[in-house]
Amino acid sequence: MEKKRDLSISGSGSIGGGEYNEVRISGSGKVQGDIVCKDLRISGSAKMEGNIKTENYSISGSSKIIGSLECDNLKISGSSHIQGDLKGNKMYISGSSKIDGGLYGEEIEISGGIHVGKDCEVEKFKASGNFEIAGLLNGENIEVNIGGKCTAKEIGGENINIKNSEMGGFAFLNLFIKRKLFAESIEGDNIHLENTVANIVRGKNVYIGEGCEIDTLEYSEKMKVDPNAKVLNIKEI
Question: Which residues contact 139 (CB under 8 A, 6 or more apart)?
Answer without folding.
Answer: 120, 121, 122, 123, 124, 125, 157
